[in-house]
Design goal:
about 60% strand; about 675 residues; five-stranded mixed beta sheet; 7 helices
Length: about 675
């Protein structure tokens, strides 16, 4: 009996939610008839009444976000001469009537573009009588530049006008006028100075969104990564992207991946900047993205439904002390529902760096002066390649598959002079294979799977001398990491601007790595030799919500429960997340964000081994390291969409860092990862 009651309540709740559900759709050059037909088939709240042939010529391009059915249809109609009537008199049989107010079989159709072949939205089209220029009918173009205007005469005069462009007059004797290109109009004004500014950033769903095509008009860039660094507030430091001084995680099209942060950067360097649509800056990333803290989601343009082939070739030379050359290209092919992209980048060159040390080393009861200079030269070649496929099964129903690979070969020489003299030669290769698969269903389900196999075999020779001590070592090592990631996410649009999302992930990693160090007699050194073969598992589940309050306030919050299991650790942690964005007015925004995350030590740092970098420098790993937690509160104020002010507080329990110390019984500097004591 109890089970029956529970099932009944669940069904009633489900029916209640569905009865009030809101619509989110995106239409690109779709006939209004077809769009209404789809809406009629996908819901049962209303019966939509219309004549298919009457509305077929009216094509729409628009994005609908969480609208009721009548609101969605009204947005689709736009400025077309079409009337919508809603009849709610009978609750169980509510009807919506959609009809053209100008009853005629003729419609003047065409597309308006500017001098750069971009569609012109909201251009004015007046249908005039060629005999006396009296107004017969009129309308405006939609977001794709398309217009459809009913008319009755066999021959009419079309007047197309848009602010800043020359007015065009065109005699039309056929319904289809094709593409009309507008030309800019130059007007000289004496004693008048006109100033304007383009706002490249807006807010959307609690995120700060940058219009990348508009930004690229001001700051041109060849690839997506360079374009990203031109966003106001974004900077690059030591190969990491920062926003207002905070490190961010980069995401491409909201899809989870097992690629490391540096490999995502390399992927962006191969991606043409011209395919970027927008960049979403998230002060506290929602749990559904499966990253934590501040993140930037790079969204590319959607070419679904188009037929095109485009490509880009790039190359260059960077000259410092030595030179490095690179060359590559990318190609994008779209045919209807299928999209394919591929890219390749080749790099060959030499890099150089140097570092100096000075120390007053405590040895027994004395102080020993020490100084050295180390010069590094690395020569290598690098091949990076990517191919991806996207298939739009139907509206909001997509499948994508992508492969990313890398092959690298590097020779490096470190030469140390000064109190200690040493030469270290190394040779390493890098092999990377990554496959990402993603599926999205029209009812809000997102499934993802990602696999990465990374291998880095390396050999090193060290010949060093420090006072009476000499080091003649040979090191053979290999890092091999295999990682699987599975994600599942579900989103529900609820009444009154609420959105519910929940899901989880399962990540499995195998680290099979070794390091063997031999002395001059080719005997292994036990303290510098180790091998690990262990598995790591991360499981989590989350639930969250978002709420749009009016036009000015957005709220987003989630809670994640996560289990981390490794060779020595098996623990649960809770990670809350919160983000609130307040649009004070058109140009000012205030944001409060709270995030929490876990930071994991690198795989090499958890091996029980010593690495001898020179005759004086040693690097010790620490197998007892565990993940540390990080809690971050951030307050951001954006003034006039140009100036960003931030204040933040960060708490990091179990904080670990690589620190150097000098033992008192011998001449050496030891760098080791360790946990900083509290207090």
């Amino acid at each position: 009996m109890n089970r029956y009651i529970a099932i009944t309540l669940f069904l009633l709740l489900t029916i209640s939610i569905q009865a009030q559900r809101r619509i989110s759709r995106e239409y690109k050059n779709v006939s209004l008839s077809e769009a209404l037909k789809q809406l009629a088939e996908q819901q049962t709240d209303y019966t939509i009444m219309f004549l298919y042939n009457e509305l077929e010529d009216f094509r729409i391009t628009t994005t609908i976000s969480r609208k009721t059915l009548p609101e969605a249809i009204q947005q689709m109609i736009g400025f077309y001469p079409i009337l919508m009537t809603v009849d709610n008199s009978v609750p169980e049989g509510k009807k919506i009537f959609v009809e053209c107010t100008h009853k005629t079989d003729r419609r003047l159709t065409g597309t308006i573009i500017d001098e750069q072949s971009h569609p012109v939205a909201y251009a004015n089209i007046a249908i005039l009588n060629p005999a006396d220029s009296t107004l017969l009918s009129g309308g405006v173009s939609n977001e794709s530049g398309y217009f459809a205007i009913p008319y009755e005469q066999h021959k009419v005069l079309a007047r197309i006008s848009y602010v800043g462009y020359k007015t065009i007059y065109k005699i039309c004797s056929q319904p289809e006028v094709g593409t009309i290109r507008l030309q800019p109009e130059t007007v000289s004004l004496k004693g008048v100075q006109v100033k304007g500014e383009r706002i490249v950033s807006t807010t959307e769903n609690g995120h700060l969104v940058y219009n990348m095509p508009m930004l690229l008009q001001v700051y041109p860039a060849d690839n997506a990564y360079d374009a990203l660094t031109n966003i106001p507030g974004v900077s690059e430091m030591n190969g990491s992207i920062m926003f207002s001084g905070r490190t961010v995680t980069l995401i491409i099209n909201g899809k989870p991946t097992t690629l490391s942060a540096d490999k995502v950067v390399e992927r962006l360097r191969q991606m043409p900047a011209t395919i970027l649509a927008k960049a979403e800056v998230m002060p506290s990333a929602p749990a559904k993205y499966h990253v934590r803290g501040m993140a930037i989601n790079i969204v590319t343009k959607d070419f679904t439904g188009t037929n095109q082939l485009s490509g880009q070739l790039m190359g260059g030379w960077r000259q410092h002390k030595y030179g490095t050359g690179y060359a590559g290209g990318s190609v994008i092919y779209n045919h209807g529902k299928l999209g394919i992209d591929a890219s390749y980048m080749f790099t060959d060159g030499t890099s150089y760096g140097q570092v100096e040390h000075e120390a007053n080393h405590p040895l027994n009861d004395q102080r020993m002066s020490y100084s050295d200079k180390t010069r590094n030269r690395s020569d290598g070649v690098d091949h990076e390649y990517h191919i991806g496929m996207d298939y739009a099964i139907s509206e909001n129903h997509n499948l994508s598959l992508a492969y990313t690979g890398q092959w690298n070969s590097t020779r490096s020489t470190n030469t140390t002079t000064g109190t200690a003299q040493s030469t270290q030669n190394s040779r390493q290769h890098t092999y990377l294979h990554n496959v990402d698969a993603n599926y999205s269903a029209p009812f809000g389900l997102q499934l993802g799977a990602s696999y990465t196999n990374y291998q880095e075999p390396r050999t090193q020779n060290l010949d060093g001398q420090l006072n009476e001590m000499s080091r003649n070592l040979y090191v053979d090592s290999r890092q091999k990491v295999s990682k699987w990631l599975f994600t599942a996410d579900q989103t529900h649009s609820l009444p009154k601007g609420w959105e519910l999302n929940y899901g989880g992930k399962a990540q499995f990693t195998n680290n099979n790595s070794y390091q063997t160090t031999f002395n001059a007699d080719h005997q292994p050194l036990p303290d510098a030799t180790s091998h690990v073969d262990y598995n790591e598992r991360i499981l989590n589940a989350y639930a969250g919500f978002s709420k749009q309050i009016g036009q000015s306030l957005s709220l987003d919050a989630s809670l994640t429960a996560e289990q981390y299991h490794a060779a020595k650790w098996n623990e649960w942690r809770i990670y809350p997340q919160f983000n609130a964005m307040w649009n004070i007015n058109e140009k000012n925004m205030l944001n409060l964000a709270f995030s929490s995350e876990a930071i994991y030590p690198s795989y090499w740092s958890t091996m029980s081994s010593i690495y001898y970098a020179s005759a004086y420098s040693e690097i010790w790993s620490n197998p007892d390291l565990k993940p540390m937690s990080k809690y971050d509160i951030n307050l951001m104020w954006q003034l006039n969409r140009n100036y960003t002010f931030t204040a933040f507080v960060m708490l990091e329990p179990d904080y670990f860092v690589q620190m150097a110390y000098q033992p008192t019984d011998r001449m050496a500097v030891i760098a080791s990862l360790g946990t900083v004591p509290h207090g």
